[in-house]
Amino acid sequence: MSHEREPTNTPARPEEPGLPESLDPPEEPGPPEAPDLSVVIPAYNERHRLTPTLDALTDYLSADEPRWGSWEIVVADDGSTDGTGDLVTARRDPRLRLVTGEGNRGKGHALRLGVAVSRGRRVLVTDADLATPIEELERLDKALGEGDCAAIGSRSVPGATIGARQHRVRELLGRAGNALIRRTALPGIHDTQCGFKLYEGDRAREAYAASRVNGWGIDVEVLRHLRDAGLSIAEVPVRWSHRPGSKVGPLDYVRVLTEITRIAARSVRPADVFAPFLFLLMSVALYSGRFFDPAGRYLPDSLRDQNQWEWFFAVTADNVAHFRNPLFTDLQGFPDGVNLMANTVMLGMSVPLAPLTLAAGPAVTLSLVMTLGLAATAAAWYWLIVKYLVRSRVAAFLGAALAAFAPPMVSHAHAHPNFVVLFMVPLIIDRALRLCAGTRVVRDGVVLGLMAAYQVFLGEEPLLLTALGMLLFAAAYAVLRRDAARAAWRPLLRGVLIGAAVCLPLIVYPLVWQFAGPQSYTDIEHNPRSFNSPLALLSFAERSWLAGDADTAKALAFNTTEQNAFYGWPLALLALAIVVLLRKRAPVTALAFTAVAAAFLSLGREFRIPLTGVVLSGPWELLADKPLFEAVIESRVAMICAPALGMLLAVAVDRLLAVRPPVTRYAGLLAVAVALLPLIPAPLRAVDRAEVPPFIAEGTWTSYVREGESLVPVPLPDPSDADALHWQTEAGLGFRLPGGYFNGPYGDERVGIYGAEPRFTSNLLREVRNTGEIPPVNDSWREQARVDLAYWKAGVLVLAPQPHDSALRTTVEKLLGESGKWVGGVWVWDLHEGTRPRAAPITLP
């Protein structure tokens, strides 16, 4: 009901000729004057609680009319059956209005009706129990007067006071709900469900009219509507006390969860769902040669890395299943063992995925980790670019695709999951940027520490390169924007220190084990060609679909899994044009500096100017021998260029799409296409995997290897031939192997090497495999072989068909003084004297 405006005194209107006085048209009343404040109360069967609430409201608002001005109270009856509506009409106060809906449809429906009929310049929405006293309106009104469009009462910000508390279970459910709302629908707002909110009147009517949910989730939907419109919301601490008689039942929590899910789903742009789906398709296409048959297909360009990584996942799952230390094993490198923490076994993936590995095998696990990890990395870069750099989803997609599928990423995609699964890197960058804002330093510092700790268990070298790239960007940005740097450095430093305090206790034991535990090493020498040539940065990668040149790529990189540059000259020219045209934007210049500095560092200790004999000292010389950096392959520093170039590309495309002249727009997009098309990777090459000999696959080996013994392949597995690791995983890790493919110590100085510490016999057999020449075996060599076999606790020697296998077989026979036996597709030498008959040499057909 509404009251009418009082008629005003107006001069008498002169009579019109021929018109009787009784037929004069009556004067129409004007529209009622809008009150200063509307109070909207949703009510369902609130007869007993509503009376004191209405008394408190009318007394407070009437007592200070100069402060609050004219006001009205709108009770939105949600189909009450206890006479709630009659209570309102019985008061006969024109400032009290009743609006009634059909049936009981929920708090959201009632509020939508109530706010729709409100007329106030400001609208206060409050619950019928007035758990927040009306005196708190003063705080909300003050906040609204400072420029916000909404001021909401909060029980979860500093300064709030809680009197009578809810039941402990309901309180915990409320906190969990608020946490979920912050993570999904309304980041930054701590308490959306406190029933005391003040809005600008027109904004409130617009937001509630646009709402769709009928239940308790309407508060979230309305605030989300205001936030999406770019309007500010103040969260104000208030006094609050629980009132008995709450209408919130157990099922309402489920309904609210459903409504929040609907609200969050409606706010997601289709492009933000489609982009990760496309990234997944791109990743599956890249791995299509092996994705659908991971156990039966092999990536030959991965060299021995696929065998090694499958073994890493298998041994970690085995350690977890048997409650053994996941940081060490003696299944490889027997009897000394392998320091797994020093070998980047990605415990952050291999441990939680242990059940999958045990159920489906390590080949399936590795395939999923590589495929999904690459897609997740692209999606994370997309999210970061959209959040901080561009509005265009097309621009963000192209930038993220370049960051995740750049040539060096594709090179590592062969079988280096620690350099492919990088989805934590954009999240770490985001948290550092939040720290610069200085709003929630403690929380963001703690989260940063947890993220860094997790990234340590995914890959330490990518984390180091991330930190290096962030430092390069920060240095450039600080020079360009000194005001921003002065405002950001204190909260950033404080947050980083908090993060370190959180991170270090979580990683200190694994790191001590890595650097001082069994089979740890001090440093490791890499290939002397592990740097980038300047030409490599401008050339095309071997796996480039349109422009790839295998001979050129192999001449400029020391192996196919370390082609860490190859961005191509068209992309370099495009990046230069972007920087020249957008140089006034500080992020663009800082990103360009980051990419150039990283590329320059990747040139190594010294570099030769192409087409000349001039050799210059490289900037990597300053870092090469420093702690942590001494183990980095310097060519990998160029991987920092991928996200930097991706972000530059996103900014440029975003600007191009907004350019008015079509000619300029199309010319710019054509330049982007010319730069990106040569970088599209072809699917990774895959071949049928060599079958495991029946001697291993059928379990025949169990008759030859006793407890505490090892199976010795001929020659021993090493970084150049690691098929025996696949044998071991196929055998369920049932036997131990001397030798292997891992990083371990060598000599008294414990210098890092690839593989086990060499012994006389392992060197001899490797030399025969490489040359095919049978050496002149003498008694001294036979004695050394006996010592080595005893050291390895060898139970059996196994020689599988391979190049130069005849020379290997003859050499072993000379060393042992006995012939081998053909069993299950391999030559076997049983080393248990007297337990098996010695067989004469067998001539194969």
UniProtKB/TrEMBL annotation:
Its main location: endoplasmic reticulum. The chain crosses the membrane at residues 273-292, 356-382, 394-410, 463-480, 492-512, 566-583, 590-611, 631-653, 665-684. It catalyses: a di-trans,poly-cis-dolichyl phosphate + UDP-alpha-D-glucose = a di-trans,poly-cis-dolichyl beta-D-glucosyl phosphate + UDP. The keyword Plastid does not apply. It is a single-pass membrane protein. It is found in: Endoplasmic reticulum membrane. Residues 1-37 are annotated as: Disordered. It comes from the Bacteria. Keywords: Endoplasmic reticulum, Glycosyltransferase, Membrane, Signal-anchor, Transferase, Transmembrane, Transmembrane helix. Belongs to the glycosyltransferase 2 family. PANTHER family: DOLICHYL-PHOSPHATE BETA-GLUCOSYLTRANSFERASE, GLYCOSYL TRANSFERASE. This is dolichyl-phosphate beta-glucosyltransferase.
